[in-house]
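Sequence in, structure out.
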Amino acid sequence: MSLSINTNIAAIDAYNNLNSTSNALDKTISQLSSGLQIQTAADNSSGYVIAQDLQAQSNGLNVAISNGQNAISVLQIANGAMNQQVNILQRMNQLAVQASNSGALSSNASNAVNTEFTDLATQLNQIANSTTFGSGSNSLLSTQQVLTFQLGAYAISTDQVAVTLQATTAASLGIASTLSLASFASAQLALSAVQGAIDLVATIQASVGASQNQIQADISNLTISQQNVQAAHSSLVDANMAQTMTTFTAQQILMQAGTAMLGQAQQLPSMILKLIP
């Protein structure tokens, strides 16, 4: 080891090492206080980009799960309304069968049956036109429409589910406004039309039920996917607290040792005085 007064190499080396340890300790303290090993792009540029993508995917999946639950609610509302319409159609079927037994009906009874039948047809329209999801929403059953639900995190077709809802107004179901139970012949026509309407509504409900099952399966898959994405994001961004604490302890020791050695190195030039006789 050479001794000089103007340049203290040992002290410079000790200072550089101490400064490096101090910077590393600052970073470790930041990780321990935040619980994150990647807080900014400066910590890990490529990891930061990946983490942001994973966070966006996780957020999108979270909303997609909520979208799926809302989609099921929409279909349940539509299905519930159709249940009421089926009940009405079953009653209309009973009335049409009763009216077809014209030989045993008085004119007053026939008129009463026909009036109830007409009123029930009006209720079919009322239900179809008033069935909505949310305030101010368009009617779900007044016209045929395609409902599109976003069940994924990305703007791709595989992350979307389209459900076709057919109209269930009286006219759409084949219950013409001219139908009546005023005579045997008209009662027979009405009976055929009502039974066809019952089959049609049942077919529509079957389709809606299948869509509900599909969306429920999608929600289950989305939930698992979100959990996996969150786990991947956590392993990339979150600090391993046990490992980081071990590093922190080692860095504290290095700081204490470095500080002590810097003090010792700064005293080295004074040894030159012992060389002077």
